[in-house]
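Troubleshooting: if your tokenizer reports a length mismatch, compare your output against this known-good record of 155 residues.
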Amino acid sequence: MLELTTEQVAALAEIDAKGFVERVRADLCNADPRLADDPTLSSRLWRAFKAARALGIERDENLVAFLRIEAYAPGFYEQPAPRAWLTRPGRSVDERFHDYLRVMRWKIEHPEYQGGLSNGGVGDTGSRGSRGSAWTSFGARWRGFVGRGSDGGNG
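Known-good structure output:
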């Protein structure tokens, strides 16, 4: 039987994690080709993955959503409000992140309760049939919600 050292197991886990992040990056770029032009995307996603794990996010679907948000709102998890919510005691970080994501989606989809978004109102729902275009639409709304334009900058 093959026996691995702790260091070897850790190295294999990191290889697996980097493969996971790369697959998410590829999916993001397929859904929104503009992201492929961002030379910082891979490194940002890797940092976000490590931050998500450090926060305690374990579920794959939450990790994917975390990385998707990072693609459109770099460093969102470093902002005081999301960090405070995710690190608040009482529930698991996975549950808190899921709640955070639901609230952000609702706010983006219902700008009439927010005083409107800078990039316009709610678009039609015709793009919901495609997972990629739904996330692209979500990304555009997210950028508007967090105050970033569609120019792809980190500012």
